[in-house]
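Hey, can you fold this?
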Amino acid sequence: MEEQKQKQNNQVDFINNSEPADLSSPDFSQIKEKPKKTRFKKYLFLALKIISAIVVLLIIVSAVLGIIYYQNFKKAYELGFAAKADAEEALHEIINRKFSNGAELIEESNQKLDQAKELLDQVPVIRYIPYLKTQVKAVDNLLIAGVNLTESGAKVVWLMEDIFEPLHNESITYTSITLEQKKAILNKLVESEELLYEVKDQIDIAVAAIEDIPDTGLIGPLKENVDKIKDTLPLVKNLVDYSLPMIKVVPKIAGFDQPKTYLFLFQNNSELRPTGGFIGTYGILKIHNGEMVSFETDNIYNLDRAPQYILQEEAPAPIAKYLEQKYWSLRDINWSPDFPTTAEKALYMYDKEYEILQSLK
């Protein structure tokens, strides 16, 4: 008990001897750190100074580049207009059948467009500047299209010169062209097939280049011209795509180096049949090297009468029932509305009936 009392007395003495705590307000006068708001303003001011310096530097660089490449842009601009003038003059020459002059002018236009493209290719920096790179891309693609179109156009015009050269500037009418001239023209078409497919490939490249130009972000005059080209160039492509197969088969149809014989079926649309009308007359056309050798027509009943009953091919049920024709003949051959099917059957029936008719003579 006495020990506990002694400990308690010692604790009281310790508390009594302790110095009182200093409860006065803290002194902030010695703090040297400025408020955070002032520091933010300082950083913002520094950032603005850096941005201003960058802008000034860009202006200086742009001015220097403008001085250095000004002649490139100016020359490319002049070459573009000169190429346009050459193309317009070439069209005038072609209309007047001066094909060689027209082809040479188109080649000059092509060279100028190629030079303009080379000049712009020497200015790579501008292609990385926002907004400007969109305009440059459009001009680049226009030049690619122009180079390919003029190069392919010159090939076509030179071909026209070769085709019409045998005519010796004569007026183009069927009767005025001799057999030898027709043969020469067909021969040129046969020889030009590979060249014409090269032309098609170049036109496809031109179309792809134009379609790759952005629809938005272009300056007014540039967009206006791009839109016009986008509307008209596909028409040229379609014309070439549809014409090439025709050019490929025309010499064969015209009997180049081998005579051709064609069966014509004349239909009367006042007597309705599946392919358009009743076949009342037929004709046989013979052609060689573009020259019509003969074209004879006859009443189809003169071909049908005797062979019909000898051939004895059973007619389709509706023909037998409603027309009371037991056996099928050429005049009723157009039973299928699908013309290729009817044409194939008509050739078969004509050959059979003609063979029988000849054997009866």
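Oh, and this one too while you're at it.
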Amino acid sequence: MTFVRIERARAGAAAPDTPADLVELISPRTNAASYTPLEHLFAALSREGGVSLEIGGDASARRFYARLAGPHARTCLNAQLSAASPQTRARPASVDPARRQPSEQVAVVSLHLREPEYLPLRILRDSDIASDRAPQADPLLGVLAALGSMPSPWRALAQLVMEPAPRDWPRRHVRRTLEHALEPERAERVRAGSGSGWGGAVLAALFLAAVVVLPRLWAVYLIHGWLPVALFAVPAAIGLGALYAVWMRLSERPLYDLDLVKEKLGRPAARAELRLAVFAPDTVPQSELQATLDRLVAAYHAYDLERGNRFVARRLAVPDAADALCAAAPMSPRRALATLTTRELAGLWHLVQAGDDVGLVERTTYRLRRRRTRSFSCRSHGS
């Protein structure tokens, strides 16, 4: 008797060797969608996996792309994008901007969160990016300017690769939405007032060590001089200093804002890798290539929040293959991926609005048509 085992694949999970489809998205000329409608798009895509939303730029154009692995991700993008921005036009990309040509070199970094994952980035409100109230306030416009400032034939690419986040990731941080950051220190002061505490124990240990060690060192000094004492005292001082630094690091408690933690934990999230790549001819010096990449990284400092989180760039080792960046999958270890909410994802990638003055961005030819109504006055004529 032969048994056949049938397994159901997880929705949205693509095989490692499944090629990803690259679609170019054309911004609607009348686009007025803010961050909030796009949150629904990212909430759906974050559960799929195998999705990379990208922005490419060179001296001639700036383009928006969606790299999708699997039919579920493509269906989800079409449905959610049509709801958030109905007039967006999608077409197959003629050239893959992530594919390295034989005569090119590439420098790649990934942006990671510097602070704990429960602290948010600086994402503006919908009213703050409205063109009729605050023209050119969108921080993504600075990123587009940096992407489009590449000399010919250079090009740059920003890839926002997403994976599903564990559904229970906020549970270990829920206490921070209720407990003040200084509450542990206040509790320690109360315990210290009723007893000696850790400070008294440490002082007692140091006093005991001094009573035991100092007489022995004095005897060694009287017999052999300073050299043996120095050979013992210097490593001991270095070891004590290292132990003190480790103890201070372990006892350090991060400060946080309750409202910011509530804002971060109150929305769906995804594990994301934000990759920045600059392609240049192989004759360009490595220092010049790295300087250009640093200027692109600096454009993302607009998302830094003083009391919240910020990005830090880390060099990413890319395999020596032409299509190394063409997969819709993270290249960093899973533990190094950033946890970003749908609001943060929408702020990092979205199509330009109708009122944004951005050059070298193709827009659709659709225009908003308003129905003209005529008013008729009825007059009653007496006989």
